[in-house]
Design goal:
This protein is α+β, with helices and mostly antiparallel strands and 148 residues long. The protein has five helices and seven strands; from the N terminus they run H-E-E-H-E-E-E-E-H-H-H-E.
Amino acid sequence: MFRVMLSLLLALGISSSALSAEGEFADYKVGDITHTLPKQATDDYILGIRDIGRALQQCQSKRRTLTNPLIMRQSLLSVSQSRNGCRFVYLREANWQYECTLPAKVATELGLSMERASLRSGQALGDFSDGEKEVLFDSRFCRESSMK
């Protein structure tokens, strides 16, 4: 009888551990593909992108190092004020560097685009949104260079 109860308790303990482990992962759609990623790390990344987007909208000094859990690569994002507008530096996943001097209106547009991408969680994990591309790839505002 004791062995049966012990076996049941162990079985329940194992199944509850398995259930709690499942709660640590979530599905995120990136493009047309759904990825199962660690929930906390993914949420931290997405909220970090949103935080930088909001800092850009106000041109508030902010610096974040974020790890994209989809590809396990780090990015450094920095917002600061300058004489000529809002300065934004984005070292993306150790591949590309974007150095931008943005007028207030453009900084707000980029910040809103980043915030919108973060609200569609999978988009923040993948490629830039169209709004982000319009600013980051515009040589009037940003200088892009490869770090490869």
